[in-house]
Amino acid sequence: MPFSNFDYAIIGSGNVAHFLAFKLMEKGLKVRQIYSRNPTTGKDLADLTNASFESTIQTINAQVIFIAVQDNQIQAVASQLPASSLLLYTSGSVNLSELPQQNCGVFYPLQTFSKTNYKESFNGPILLETHDVKMREFCINLCDTLNLSYKLTSSDERKNIHLCAVFLNNFINHIACIGLSEAKERKIDLSLFTPLLKKTFENIISNDPCENQSGPAKRNDKIIINEHIALLDGNSKTIYHLITESILAKNGNEL
Questions:
Q1: Which end of the chain is more exposed for a tag (fewer CB within 10 A), N or C?
Q2: Per CATH, the architecture of 159-250 is what?
């Protein structure tokens, strides 16, 4: 059956839900139902997709249902959905064995999303895992229809990929948040850092970051390190200290 003959529902109304909705609409696939515990964002997403916003999860009955909710909600949500529907959840960490229903599978986009960038070109893989071959073929063909690259993974492999992604995305973003917040507090023009940030990420992608490391901790420059620490307080001081110790240890030194 062509994928345009299926109807789709999305549980959730966050960033991943918006990405999925846009990709489905982009390829002319019908998003028929939206359900979210947040009625405001849920109704907004339903309006965006010309879908019906369902006030209760029990009325969700589309043939293909994406579960884009927090990890600790996935099992409870899946248990309330029809056994006749195909259920695809979008978690990086939840083991597929925790959802024994044969109609369940993993459809995890390895990417970071926001409400403003979900329409941008997606060139990261979708990590797929299913209980059986039939469901796997469906997910592969759906990715092909949506022009999405994919990788078949086990739950253990996906969890380890997600762990590394937290370092490479969430932690790096948090460090940037701290650095720019410190700059704002010191009334420094943030645009001064734009070339540095661009070059940093270019180097991370094109070279081995372990070989790229520079700065006072790499040089074991205790004078500069201690001057910096004296300028900081609170969480920024703690983070600076921890990362400095890590870089020093990596190079056989200590603070």
A1: N
A2: Orthogonal Bundle (1.10)
- In CATH terms, is domain 3-153 a member of 3.30.360.10? no
Return the domain boundaries, the chain. 3-153, 159-250
Tell me the pLDDT band of 177, cut-offs 50, 70 and 90.
very high
DSSP secondary structure string, the chain?
--GGGSEEEEE--SHHHHHHHHHHHHTT-EEEEEE-SSHHHHHHHHHHHT-EEPSSGGG---SEEEE-S-GGGHHHHHTTS-TTSEEEE--SS--GGG---TTEEEEEE-S---TTTTTS---SPEEEEESSHHHHHHHHHHHHHTT--EEE--HHHHHHHHHHHIIIIIIHHHHHHHHHHHHHHTT--GGGGHHHHHHHHHHHHHS-HHHH--SHHHHT-HHHHHHHHHH--HHHHHHHHHHHHHHHHHTT---
**Confidence band, pLDDT 50/70/90 cuts, at residue 116:** confident
